[in-house]
Design brief:
The protein has 272 residues and is of the alpha+beta class. It contains six helices and eleven strands. It is 25% helix and 23% strand. It binds zinc ion. Zinc ion binds next to loops.
Length: 272
């Protein structure tokens, strides 16, 4: 599943490809991906163009040259591919934007969980899904973050996966953040100290930025356009079951937290 860094890398690649290209056709082959009516998307998108792309957490926000934005969430398996309009359609390509140079941007999603929504530029920031997002580690205030977790009984890992608590982290980066912070993922959120909360923010910011610099993490199915990130070479615990902890040489173990495969060093990340 693409997390903040992977979506940031997709954003940067798309900016180089699709901005200021006139959209001459729009088609959709699985209408559940569009939140709203196909005809509304068609009417707003065709003869329009994207002027900029922003990212909030795992959402891409495509600004149009009208009072609209197209918000895209890749969810589990969504990807964008750039192809020529004559290239054969793959069965997993559900949404296609055709540009005036006859290049096409194709939204590919094997599980069809991704969603696109059109909203007004001057409203979207105050409407779900974007209004439900917390800030990313770079911008979040310690007190805001600490206040959100201090009354919660659920495991800290579940809190960190919750985009309304802190945005941009998914399964991989939460594991890495908690390892660097020496916190057990099953620790009750309310037992996290203010100092530990500060460590989480600092380490999450460090990891997200490092990953963006390396093009994100390529694990299993994730690849967007034609990028292959290199952050998987830097992972300390995630996917490292049975390997040595880089700090204490204990074996990394895999457990399940919040329904997700979770990698920890039980020696470095003791539960209180
Ligand atoms: Zn260790």
């Amino acid at each position: 599943m693409p997390e903040g860094p992977e979506v940031e890398v997709v954003k940067r690649q798309l900016e180089a490809i699709v901005l200021n290209r006139k959209i001459i056709d729009f088609s959709c082959f699985h209408e559940k991906i569009l939140v709203g009516k196909f005809q509304d998307f068609f009417n707003i998108l065709v003869n329009n163009h994207f002027t900029q792309i922003k990212r909030y957490g795992k959402f891409l926000v495509f600004y149009l040259n009208s009072n609209h934005v197209l918000i895209s969430h890749l969810r589990m398996e969504g990807k964008y591919h750039l192809k020529n309009s004559l290239d054969e359609k793959n069965k997993h390509e559900h949404v296609i934007f055709t540009f005036d140079n006859l290049e096409t941007l194709r939204y590919h999603d094997t599980r069809k969980f991704g969603r696109m929504i059109l909203q007004k530029k001057d409203e979207y920031f105050n409407l779900p899904p974007i209004s439900n997002l917390a800030k990313e580690p770079e911008k979040i205030l310690l007190d805001d973050f600490y206040n959100k977790i201090k009354n919660r009984k659920r495991p800290i890992k579940a809190s960190l996966l919750d985009q309304s608590v802190i945005a941009g982290l998914g399964n991989i980066y939460v594991d890495e953040t908690l390892f660097l912070s020496k916190i057990h993922p099953l620790e009750e959120s309310s037992l996290i100290s203010r100092k530990q909360a500060a460590d989480i923010i600092k380490n999450a910011d460090y990891i997200l930025k490092k990953s963006i610099g390396l093009g994100g993490t390529t694990i299993k199915s994730f690849s967007a356009t034609n990028i292959h990130g290199k952050f998987q070479n830097e992972l300390l615990v995630h996917t490292k079951k049975g390997m040595k902890c880089p700090v204490c040489s204990n074996k990394i173990v895999k457990i399940v937290v919040a329904g997700r495969g979770t990698y920890i060093c039980e020696n470095c990340q003791e539960k209180t």
